[in-house]
């Protein structure tokens, strides 16, 4: 990348950042309840509530016959399916190896769609205890209401314990599930499309390891980078300007695996599913109006800077 191209890219990023900040202030924070609009079908009743409330980038894998993944960013908008059909959560639960009657912690669950999945999906082992924590009060309250509504129809409801606070325990959240003094250990910990936001991811992994039961597992749908990308000027500029994650979380896939092993996890695996996440999600966003088109461009910049979307899992011995 020559200097003139780099300057043009920096100018574009600054404009994009300005539009992003303005659109968030003018309309609504995408991490409030604005994601509900993304769960609505464009052809459905605009006044009807969405049937799901997913808040993740989705898993957009399609058969070769419908190959819109041939070029990462050259996608036709009509090829992107609705967000409710792109379930990343089931991909994550497979990696977690959930066990029947286990104790599960769901981190960063948004307004509770992943909680409802764990409580109602017949193909998944049913937990005896389900804990959750989310950082936004509006998400916490909505999750409580949605879970209570579902539980009211169950004959033998799972014990559910939801918390409002940061996923990383810092001593300020009462009864935090990752507090050393919290009762009970977890058989599985899930982090669906959120760990790259945490300050820091490593602290979260260390605290999770301490609270896992023997042979317990952790699974994360997360973002890291290629080793080659992290040393380029473009990646450094993109990540500095757009700030989607703390600098300490900017690690390569190799560093991610090494970090997990340093903490004590065994059987660590990292599956790169970038082609099945970023292209479909970007195309989907660009088809939902200009405000979301801007967010799609932010994600396109990250993907172009070498970001990888991965499923990472590990086990406590």
From TrEMBL:
SUPFAM superfamilies: S-adenosyl-L-methionine-dependent methyltransferases. It holds the Pfam family Methyltransf_23. It comes from the Eukaryota. The chain crosses the membrane at residues 290-311. Keywords: Membrane, Transmembrane, Transmembrane helix. The keyword Transmembrane helix applies. The keyword Transmembrane helix applies. This is S-adenosyl-L-methionine-dependent methyltransferase. It comes from Agrocybe chaxingu. The lineage of its organism: Eukaryota, Fungi, Dikarya, Basidiomycota, Agaricomycotina.
